[in-house]
Amino acid sequence: MSETVAITIDAAEHHVAPGISVASALLNASVASFRRSRGGDARAPLCGMGVCQECRVTIDGAAHQRACMVTVAEGMRIVTATSAEP
Amino acid sequence: MTQSCDVLVIGGGPAGIAAASRAAEAGARTMVVDEGASPGGQIWRPKLTGHQPSVARQWLARLAASEATVSPRTTVVDLQVSAPRSFIVRAERSGIPTIIGARALVLATGARERFLPFPGWTLPNVFGIGGAQALLKSGTRFDGKRVVIAGTGPLLLPVAASLSAAGAKLLVVAEQSSRARVARFAAGLWNAPATLAQAARYRAGFFGAPYSMNSWVVRAEGDDRLRRVVVRVGTETRTLECDALCTGYGLVPNTELARLLGCVMRGSVVFVDADQSTSTDGVYCAGEPTGVAGVDSAIAEGQVAGLAAAGRASDAAPLRRVVSRRAAHGRGLDRAFALRPEIHTLAASDTIVCRCEDVRLGQLDRGWSARQGKLYTRAGMGPCQGRICGPALECLMGWSADSVRPPVFPARVRTLSSPAKTGDSAETSERNHDAPA
Ligand SMILES: Cc1cc2nc3c(=O)[nH]c(=O)nc-3n(C[C@H](O)[C@H](O)[C@H](O)COP(=O)(O)OP(=O)(O)OC[C@H]3O[C@@H](n4cnc5c(N)ncnc54)[C@H](O)[C@@H]3O)c2cc1C
Ligand code: FES
Questions:
Q1: Does A23 touch chain B (CB under 8 A)?
Q2: What pTM, to 2 d.p., does this model score?
Q3: Of all atoms in ligand 1, which is nearest to the CA of residue A50?
Q4: CATH number at residue A70
């Protein structure tokens, strides 16, 4: 197994430790806005265990994936609300 | 895909692992499903670094050695009784709809954290206390981060210990309860890694951070993320610049599936008899949904439930004493960490209470029921299905939980439609907010 996994976060390439969650990869990359609330505010993980749904991002084209419940994989493309920012 | 088994265990935490191992060893065709990437639940979920406690290793090995089928990344979204002692369970396995038929169910769905709203609690980098621990385990780095921990219950100290061990700089550990002795004692009983728990118990101010009783977070401030928190420490109000805030007010049992099956509740927990049998024939329940009492209790209850579900309840006799002793301990925890009145008044009228639908406290009327709150404001109707705001509004408004409707987690329409239909086109729309009837 290689030492790092290459993923893209909002079009930027990152090398992260294998086995970590997508939420951890994003937090370690200082992403604050995983999603936007109905009122437009930045939201990010709260519960870390699949319950609150605040960590939802688009993973490999599939919207509304809970980042805290998904493990990073080589070549994974993650799109957060940050990239939709003006 | 359709599968069938004798005993389906829902939830692969300590309770579910014990249940599945015992049921399979007793000869039942057993399957255990869990949302996570591997079994373990809240405390035995594999860590990327560090060692598992030996009891965790033993039970995980026992499960692996048994004939039970383990299905990770599988979320149960709906279930029903199709005939006496015959159940149909709808789930998504890595997003793919799955139907599982079973003759007995063991509900071992664990608990979640209780959050209470305060100004700024929706800012990024405000985490649950157990939430921070879960994120740490899954690879989030806290080294060099300035962290405030504020809330209540036995989670505070073990999480403080693990964050500190991971290199976080703890500014304060604020416990709203006044009972330092009880809090430390309880923290010791919970499964913090033994050495860390000891350190926490023996040092008054541990890891350089004060452990303050009668202390709580008043508000969090920031811009695109958390920048500082205002905490009440004893009689003083302090502003602390920080990178993360961990907050939480105890645990709430996950009882949605039991309530969907019509199981009788006793207050907020699922009512079970000495065999862990619920009021619904063939449905057993173990671990936190029957009352939050910690890991030893979960293991004992899980074993009883697994044996009973496999038709071998008589083998469970020696375990029952452990169950009742631990349950009494759980009730002691509730008393030690009862919420002080100030905590109920932190949210202002413009504070968001339902994070999914951005409903603010001022939009709600105390005279309503939870059902009316949903109807008029959509509070509790977003993707978390009221799991976060429900317990908060129970505290703040006195609203008791509304009835549960499927799906209990956001699910694809295809997962919920009839099993006979095949060849559905890829359906991506979500059905997660049911209109209240
Ligand atoms: C965030 C958090 C942190 C905790 N930290 C500690 C600690 O440090 N020390 C300690 O002693 N205790 C801790 N606890 C208490 C802990 O829950 C118990 O001690 C013990 O883990 C209970 O075991 P359990 O099997 O009942 O539940 P859990 O370990 O919670 O297991 C339940 C499992 O069910 C799964 N599940 C739930 N619903 C579904 C569904 N619909 N479909 C599929 N799977 C589902 C969950 O993903 C989870 O893996 C913590 C609890 C929480 C919530
Ligand atoms: S952080 Fe709550 S669901 Fe992912």
A1: yes
A2: 0.90
A3: 47
A4: 3.10.20.30
